[in-house]
Design goal:
The complex is a heterodimer of chains A (614) and B (321). Chain A is α+β, with helices and mostly antiparallel strands and 614 residues long. Chain A has 17 helices and 18 strands. In chain A, 39% of the residues are buried. Chain B contains six helices and 19 strands. The radius of gyration of chain B is 30 Å and the shape is elongated. The two termini of chain B are 47 Å apart. In chain B, the strands form five sheets. In chain B, strands 1, 3, 7, 8, 11 and 12 form a six-stranded mixed sheet that branches. In chain B, strand 11 and strand 12 form a beta hairpin. Classes of the chains: A alpha+beta (614), B alpha+beta (321). Chains A and B meet through helix 3, helix 4, helix 5 and helix 13 of A and helix 1, helix 2 and helix 3 of B.
C-alpha cells in the first residue's frame, strides 16, 4: 500500500500533538513548542508545493527535539521517536517524488537513520558539553495538582485521608535503597508560625533562585535518579545530602531543592549523594526561626521556657523527647480538630492524640519557646522498594508517604532533623499498616493494574537512569577513560570516528543500492562481470543468448559452459512456478561449475600471457 | 503530487541560479563524476542547519540529552545527504541520440539516453531553454527520455546545455551538472497558413482545392467487395462478411490518385514567410494523402507522397539557404 507523503506528514503531526499533552504553555519553552507544532499543522494545511512540505518536516523534527527537552521519560521519548521517524519518512517520500509502498518507505527510513545514527552517537558522546548560558529557558510555573501543602495546620484536620496517588520514584545507582531510618525526602520548609499554622515563605516560588554552582567535573557519589509527578511547587524531593547535577536544580538557603522547570509536568533529575554536610545545613538561623506569637498557647510557652534554662541546646531537645515519650502520646490519623485558640495547648496537655503534623508543629513551637531555632519541614517518609521483572529497581513514594518533621539549629552542627513522631507509640505500626494497606487494598483488578504499573515504572526508571545519567560528569569519565591526559587528541579522535562511521555508512548504502534483490539477477551480474574480464561487454539490444554466442565465437573453448549458463538462466527465469521450483535439481551446482570454467579460462589466459611476457 | 512539484522546480530554477555555476561539459556523451558534478546546500539545507543549531542551543540550556542527540542526528543526516545526493548522479552516463526534426515555435523533443548502473531517485532533467521534466526514478539499465525545448529559427539548431540535477534523498543539497550534447536538431519553418506558389513561371497559380482526384486499384483505401477468387490472397478475405453468412468475398482496395503539384515559394512574400507557408501546405497535403513535389532555389524534390516524402520536403525547407 502506498501512502502519499501528505498523509504521512499528517500522521507525524498527530503523533507530535499527542506528545504535547502535559506541556506547560506558561513556560517559555513549552509555549514555544506548542506554537511551533501549531505552525507545522497550519503550514501542512496550506502547503501546496515541495518547499512548503519540506518546511513542515523540519518544523516537526524541531518540535520533536523541543519535546525531548521537556519530557525525557520513556513513554514521551517513544512518542517523540515515532514522530521523528514519521516526519523523516514523509520527507524521504516527498523527495523521492513518488508514492512508495509502506515496506519500501520503512526500509529506506530505517536505512538512512541507521546510517546516520553512529555518526550522531559519536558526536553526542565526544563533543564536549557546554554549560548553560544564563537561565533564559528556566522559569517556574507554580500551578497544578495536589500533594504537599505550603501551610501546615494539623489542628484543622479531623481525619487524615490516605491518598494512594503516586508522588515520586527514585532509583539508586547501586540498586540498593537507603536504610528505612534514612528515607526522609524533604520538599517544603515552613519557617513562619502564627500560633496554629506553619507557613512556607510566601516568596519561595517567586523569589530569584540562587545562581547555579558549577559542579566539579569529577564528582564521586551514588547516583539518584528522580521522577516526580506534577505538583504545585518547583520544590522537589531530595534527601538534603546530595549535589544537584542538573543546572536547572538550585538549592535554596533553607534547604529546599528547586527544579526550575514547569511544575505542571512530570519532572526528572539526577543527584549525587554526598557524605559531608551541605551548605544549607551550615546556614545560621535568622530571628524568624525563633519567632513565636506571645499571646497563644501559654502552657506550651511556659513548658518551653522552662527548658531554656538548660545550657546546652541539645539538652533542650532531649528534654522535649523525654516529655513526648513520658506523657502517653499516641499516633492516630483521626485526632479530631483542635480549637482555633490555643490548639497546641489542647493537643499537648489534654488530648495527646495526633499525626505527624501535630508532633512536628508542637515540637518546633516548644523548641522556639526554649530558645532553639526551629522550623517544620514537610516531605515524604519511607517508600516501597519495588523490584520489577524488567528495568530498574526503585523506591516508590506515594502521596500517603507524605510526612512532616522538625529541624532545629544546634551550634557547631547546624540544622538537624528531628522527627518527634518517632517518639510516640503507634507511629511505626501506622507506617507499616499504610504500606501493607496499599499492597492489599483495592479490587483484584486494581492490584493487577498496580502490578503492571510498577513493571512499566521499572522500565521507565531504567530508561531514565540510562538516559539522564549521561551528562557532563559521565562524559568526563568517558573521555578520561578514552584519552587519559591526552586531551589534545580529542579532535582527531572525533574526526577519525566520524570519518569511519561515514565511510561505513556510505559503503553499506551503496552496496545495498547496487546489490540486486533478485537472486537470478545477482547470478547474471556475476556472469556479466566474468565476461567483462574477457573483454566481452554488453551492447544495446543484447540478449543473454546473443552475448554468450558472441563470447563463444571469441573463446570457442567456452562454448559449452556458456551455452549451459544461458540455458540455465533462461530455465530459471521462466520456470513455471518461479525459480524456486528448480532449486532441488542441482541447478546451483551446475551454474557454479559452468561459471567457474569461465572464470578459470580468464585466469589461465592471464597466466599464459604473463608467461609469454617473461 | 507531480503537479505540485513542477512549479516548485521552475520557481527554484528562476530564483536560485547556482546551477549556472561551473563549466558546461561537451561531447556526444558524458559520464557524471567528481570532475563534472557540483554540490551546494539548498535553502532547505540552510534551514535544516539552523534547526539543528536551535536544538543544540536548547539542549545546552536545558542540559537534556534528547535535543542534543536529535541535533547531532540532523547534522549526521546532512553530512550523509551531501554524499548521497552526489552518489545519486555519480556514475550516470548521458548520451544524446539523433533528434527527429521538429517545427519552429512548437515544442521540440530532444532525445537523450541515460545509462545507470544502479537505481537513482528523483533525477531532474532540463534543457536550459526548455521546460523541466518531472523528477523521475531511473532503474538500472538504459532509460530514454525526450527533453522539450522551443526554437523560433529554422535550420540545424543546437539546444542550450542540458541541466541534470537532483536533491534526493533529503532535499538538503543540490547536485548538478551541465552538458552540451553534440547532436544538432533540424528545425522546420513554423507552420503558418498562407499562399504558396507552384513550380514553373508559365503555369497559372491554382489553389490546392482545385486538385482533381482520380483512382486506381491498389492497397491504400478500402473500396468495395467482390466474390472471392481462388487466386485472391487470404489476407483480403472479408472475414466479417463470411461470419455474417454472406459467403466468401474479397476486399477491393483503391489507391487515390491526385493531380500532382510542385510547390514553390510564393513570389512577393518574404523568403522566410514563404517557407512557413510551404511548411503548412506540405503538412496539409501530406495529411490528405495527396501527391506533391517541392521546388526551392537549390533543390527540386519530384512529386511523391507518404511520410518519408513529407519529411524529405520539410527537411529541405529547414536546410535551404
Amino acid at each position: 500500500m502506498a501512502l502519499p507523503s501528505r498523509r504521512l506528514q499528517w500522521l507525524a503531526q498527530a503523533v507530535l500533538i499527542a506528545g504535547c499533552v502535559g506541556l506547560d504553555p506558561g513556560w517559555l519553552l513549552g509555549g514555544f513548542t506548542l506554537a511551533l507544532v501549531l505552525m507545522a499543522g497550519l503550514k501542512l494545511l496550506e502547503a501546496r508545493d515541495r518547499t512548503g512540505r519540506r518546511l513542515v518536516a523540519l518544523l516537526q523534527l524541531v518540535g520533536c527535539g523541543l519535546l525531548a527537552a521537556q519530557q525525557p521519560d520513556l513513554l514521551p521519548s517513544l512518542v517523540q521517536l515515532l514522530a521523528a521517524v514519521l516526519s523523516l519518512a514523509g520527507l524521504l517520500q516527498l523527495e523521492s517524488g513518488q508514492r512508495l509502498a509502506w515496506r519500501v518507505l520503512l526500509r529506506r527510513s530505517v536505512q538512512v537513520l541507521t546510517a546516520a545514527l553512529p555518526i550522531a552517537l559519536v558526536l553526542f558522546l565526544l563533543v564536549p558539553r557546554v554549560s548553560p548560558l544564563g537561565s533564559g529557558l528556566n522559569g517556574p510555573g507554580a500551578r497544578a495538582s495536589t500533594g504537599l501543602s505550603d501551610s501546615l495546620d494539623p489542628g484543622s484536620i479531623a481525619t487524615l485521608a490516605s491518598n494512594q496517588g503516586p508522588a515520586a520514584r527514585v532509583a539508586f545507582s547501586n540498586n540498593r535503597p537507603p536504610p528505612p531510618q534514612e528515607r526522609y525526602w524533604r520538599v517544603l520548609v515552613h519557617p513562619i508560625f502564627n500560633g496554629n499554622t506553619w507557613e512556607r515563605d510566601p516568596r519561595a516560588e517567586t523569589r530569584r533562585p540562587p545562581e547555579p554552582v558549577p559542579a566539579p567535573a569529577s564528582l564521586q557519589g551514588r547516583d539518584q535518579i528522580w521522577l516526580v509527578e506534577p505538583s504545585r511547587f518547583t520544590a522537589v524531593p531530595w534527601n538534603g545530602q546530595s549535589l544537584p547535577v542538573d543546572p536547572s536544580l538550585r538549592v535554596e538557603a533553607d534547604g529546599e531543592l528547586r527544579l526550575l522547570r514547569p511544575a505542571l509536568e512530570r519532572r526528572s533529575y539526577r543527584l549525587l549523594e554526598q557524605p559531608q554536610p551541605q551548605e544549607w545545613q551550615r546556614q545560621p538561623p535568622s530571628w524568624g526561626d525563633l519567632a513565636l506569637p506571645a499571646e497563644s498557647n501559654p502552657r506550651l510557652l511556659a513548658l518551653g521556657r522552662s527548658w531554656a534554662a538548660l545550657p546546652d541546646m541539645s539538652a533542650r531537645v532531649m528534654a522535649a523527647r523525654a516529655f513526648f515519650q513520658s506523657q502517653g502520646f499516641r499516633y492516630t490519623t483521626t485526632p479530631g480538630t483542635l480549637p482555633e485558640r490555643n490548639g497546641l495547648d489542647v493537643f499537648l496537655f489534654e488530648r495527646r492524640l495526633g499525626f505527624c503534623g501535630h508532633y512536628a508543629s508542637a515540637f518546633s513551637a516548644l523548641m522556639r519557646a526554649a530558645g532553639v531555632p526551629s522550623r517544620v519541614v514537610s516531605g515524604y517518609l519511607g517508600g516501597s522498594w519495588i523490584e520489577p521483572f524488567n528495568g530498574s529497581s526503585y523506591l516508590e513514594l506515594r502521596q500517603s508517604n507524605a510526612h512532616a518533621w522538625s529541624e532545629v539549629w544546634l551550634p557547631g552542627v547546624g540544622w538537624q532533623r528531628v522527627d518527634p513522631t518517632r517518639w510516640v507509640s503507634g507511629a511505626s505500626a501506622a507506617d507499616e499498616q499504610r504500606t501493607a494497606g496499599l499492597d492489599a487494598a483495592g479490587w483484584p483488578l486494581a492490584r493487577q493494574f498496580r502490578w503492571l504499573q510498577r513493571q512499566w515504572w521499572g522500565l521507565d526508571m531504567g530508561w531514565s537512569r540510562w538516559w539522564l545519567g549521561f551528562d557532563r560528569s559521565r562524559q568526563e569519565e568517558l573521555l578520561q577513560w578514552l584519552l587519559g591526559e591526552r586531551r589534545w587528541a580529542l579532535g582527531w579522535l572525533m574526526l577519525a570516528a566520524v570519518a569511519a562511521c561515514l565511510g561505513a555508512a556510505l559503503l553499506l548504502l551503496r552496496l545495498q543500492k547496487r546489490e540486486p534483490r533478485d537472486r537470478l539477477e545477482r547470478e547474471l551480474r556475476a556472469l556479466l562481470q566474468a565476461l567483462e574480464q574477457l573483454k566481452i561487454t554488453t551492447e544495446p539490444g543484447d540478449t543473454l543468448e546473443s552475448l554468450t554466442e558472441r563470447a563463444a565465437s571469441a573463446f570457442p573453448a567456452l562454448a559449452e559452459p556458456l551455452a549451459e549458463l544461458a540455458a540455465l538462466h533462461r530455465a530459471q527465469r521462466y520456470a513455471p512456478g518461479g525459480a524456486s521450483a528448480q532449486r532441488g535439481r542441482g541447478y546451483r551446482q551446475r551454474w557454479q561449475l559452468a561459471l567457474q570454467q569461465v572464470k578459470r579460462h580468464r585466469i589461465n589466459a592471464i597466466s599464459h600471457g604473463s608467461g609469454s611476457n617473461r | 503530487m507531480a503537479n505540485a512539484v513542477q512549479p516548485s522546480c521552475a520557481r527554484c530554477m528562476r530564483s536560485v541560479d547556482v546551477t549556472r555555476l561551473g563549466p558546461v561539459q561537451t561531447g556526444s556523451e558524458l559520464r557524471l563524476g567528481l570532475r563534472n558534478l557540483y554540490v551546494l546546500p539548498t535553502r532547505f539545507g540552510a534551514l535544516w542547519l539552523a534547526g539543528a543549531a536551535l536544538l543544540q542551543m536548547v539542549g545546552i540550556q536545558t542540559q537534556r540529552n534528547g535535543p542534543l542527540l536529535l541535533s547531532f542526528l540532523m547534522l549526521a543526516l546532512m553530512l550523509l545527504a551531501l554524499h548521497l545526493t552526489h552518489f545519486n548522479l555519480q556514475g550516470l552516463e548521458l548520451q544524446s541520440t539523433e533528434p527527429r526534426p521538429g517545427f519552429a515555435d512548437e515544442p521540440l523533443r530532444y532525445p537523450l539516453q541515460l545509462r545507470s548502473d544502479c537505481r537513482r531517485e528523483a533525477i531532474c532533467l532540463q534543457l536550459e531553454n526548455g521546460e523541466p521534466l518531472q523528477p523521475q526514478r531511473l532503474d538500472r539499465g538504459i532509460t530514454r527520455v525526450g527533453l522539450s525545448w522551443n526554437c523560433s529559427r529554422r535550420g540545424l539548431q543546437r539546444p542550450g546545455p542540458v541541466l541534470i540535477r537532483s536533491t534526493a534523498p533529503l532535499g538538503l543539497f543540490l547536485c548538478w551538472s551541465r552538458w552540451q550534447p553534440s547532436w544538432e536538431q533540424a528545425v522546420i519553418p513554423a507552420r503558418r497558413q498562407g499562399p504558396v506558389g507552384s513550380a514553373g513561371a508559365d503555369q497559372p497559380e491554382r489553389s490546392l482545392a482545385e486538385q482533381r482526384i482520380g483512382a486506381r486499384e491498389g492497397s491504400e483505401h478500402w473500396h468495395d467487395l467482390r466474390p472471392h477468387r481462388p487466386q485472391d490472397s487470404q489476407a483480403r478475405l472479408a472475414w466479417k462478411a463470411l461470419a455474417q453468412g454472406r459467403g466468401r468475398l474479397s476486399k477491393v482496395f483503391r489507391d487515390e490518385e491526385t493531380e500532382t503539384v510542385v510547390l514553390a515559394p510564393e513570389p512577393g512574400v518574404t523568403h522566410e514567410r514563404a517557407l512557413q507557408h510551404l511548411s503548412a501546405a506540405i503538412w496539409q497535403l501530406s495529411q490528405r494523402g495527396e501527391r506533391y513535389g517541392l521546388r526551392l532555389a537549390d533543390t527540386l524534390i519530384p512529386p511523391g507522397h507518404g511520410r518519408e516524402h513529407r519529411d524529405r520536403c520539410l527537411l529541405a525547407l529547414a536546410l535551404t539557404s
